[in-house]
Amino acid sequence: MNFAQSARGAALLPVPDSDTTRPSAAEPCDDLHQLVAPHLGRLVEVAERILGSGAEADDAVQEALVTLWKAEVTPPNPRGWLVRTVVNRSLHARRTAQRRRKWEERAGIDWVTTCPLCDPEEAFENGELQQELDRALDALCDEHRMVVALRVEGLEYHEIAERLSLPVGTVRSRLNRARSALRAELETT
């Protein structure tokens, strides 16, 4: 099978050889090449305007031409039919590329956020922060450190009070003082 060339030289239009026929053509085109060749330049322009890429435009035009080649009946207005088909194929290709790009970007973001070991700078900063926090906690008195540790475990004020046999108000005041002491200690470093 020979191919007609687009304006850029890309093979677009299959030109049947003597041994190649269209599949099950009830009303075969007189000559597919003669029917389509005058419109190829315009079809590629339309597709390029929509897609912004020459290679993708050639693909959209090629798909439209194959659809015409497989059609059982030649459309009454081949130019209009081809332009409409190229526009539809181009818009479909653009939407598909946009969806793919969106999902790939989302997958890339998810990968970055779920891989803390991949960023050594972040791991180093987190390690330094943990060391500063441990040092600040060690600087607290025992009663404040105990209340903070139980609160970090997720216990509520009344549960901490029960565990330490203290009134709830005392737990609140110790936590407040512990937070102030931690804040002061961390601001000095």
**Which structural category fits the helices and strands?**
mainly alpha
Helix and strand string, N-terminal first? EEHHHHHHHH
From the alpha carbons, calculate the radius of gyration and give it in angstroms: 36 Å
**What ranges have pLDDT less than 50 throughout 5 or more consecutive residues?**
18-29
Strand content range: under 5%
Strand order of the largest sheet: 1-2
**Main sheet: strands, sense, barrel:** 2 strands, antiparallel
Q: Give the proportion of residues in helices.
A: 55-70%
Number of strands: 2
What does this structure look like?
- By secondary structure, the chain is mainly α.
- 69% of the residues lie in helices and 5% in strands.
- The protein has eight helices and two strands, in the order ββαααααααα.
- It has helices at 32-36, 40-51, 54-70, 78-113, 120-139, 142-152, 157-164, 168-188; strands at 2-5, 11-15.
- Strands 1-2 form a two-stranded antiparallel sheet.
- Helix 2 (40-51) crosses helix 3 and helix 2 (40-51) runs parallel beside helix 4 (78-113).
- The protein is rod-shaped and about 95 Å long.
Provide key terms for this protein.
69% helix, mainly alpha, 189 residues, two-stranded antiparallel sheet
Précis, in short:
It is built from 8 helices and 2 strands. The protein is mainly α and 189 residues long.
